[in-house]
Every structure is written in C-alpha cells, then in structure tokens.
Amino acid sequence: MIYRFTAEVVSVEEDDDCVVVGLADDAAMPSRHLILQNAKAYDEQDRHLQMDHVHLEIGGGSESCYGGLEQVSLLGDVLALSLSAETRGRLGITEGIEILLATRDHRERLQQALEQICAAEKIPFIQSMPGDNAE
Sorted alphabetically, which InterPro entries does this protein's record hold (predicted)? Predict the structure, then answer.
C-alpha cells in the first residue's frame, strides 16, 4: 500500500543546524503527515548511531527512521518519495509515499529545500513546475 494523502499544509523551516520539511492533511488535527529532517552536518556520534542520513516520519507509521530515501520527485503538484524496502518496513508501509499538494503556498521554498536535502544526501531529485507538461 502506498502512503498517500492530500497536503493542505506545507511547512519549510531552516536554521543553522538543519532543514525541516513538513506536509499534513490538516493544520489543526492532521491524520496523515510527512516530516523530512536533514542535518547540515553530522558528528561522530550521529555516524555511530546511524543517524547520519535524512530523518523520515509519517503519521500512522510504525516508527520514524533515518535513511532509505532513494528518490524524490516533485512533478507538478505531486511529491513522490521512493524508499528502500527496509525503510518501508520501518514506516509500516509496503510502497512509497505520494502527496498531492492542495496548496501552492511555499512551493518554491519546498522545491529548494528538497533540492538541498537531496544534494546533501546524494539522492536523485526529479522536478517540474505545475503546468510544465501542459499542452
């Protein structure tokens, strides 16, 4: 089963230490969400604990986890994440993640944050703007 929802809320936060991307189906009482968090630098303890990769959390998943993000695509209004089998198992899903963006609020910032995370983690990132495929 693919973890799928429509994101009514998109949040991108960045500070000196990390980039955090959050998407949720509702601002007040989300039942489905995705949070991606990526540190800008890792220390020896992070590496020892295998916490030196992007952190993923979904609402309703078994647990959050580090790593296993294999590809990210932001095509039009659809964000899709391909995950390793181990990561899917830890998150309690059998396929990837697909999120329809109901709002274009923060879309440019979302794209920039995803590019930044993927570049830091050497993860393929595929993108197109809404309407790029229109005839």
Answer: Imm10 (IPR028962)
Per-residue tokens: 71: 């590809």
Q: What are the start-end ranges of the E strands in the chain?
A: 3-7, 9-14, 18-24, 33-39, 55-58, 65-66, 69-75, 78-83, 97-101, 125-128
pLDDT in tens, 2-60: 999 999 999 999 999 999 999 999 999 999 999 999 998 888 887 777 777 899 999 86
pTM: 0.89
d(CA 84, CA 69): 7
What distance in Å separates the CA atoms of residue 46 and residue 24, rounded to the nearest whole number? 28
For residue 1, the number of C-alpha atoms closer than 13 Å in the C-beta half-sphere is: 7
Q: In degrees rounded to 5, what are phi and psi of residue 12?
A: -130, 125
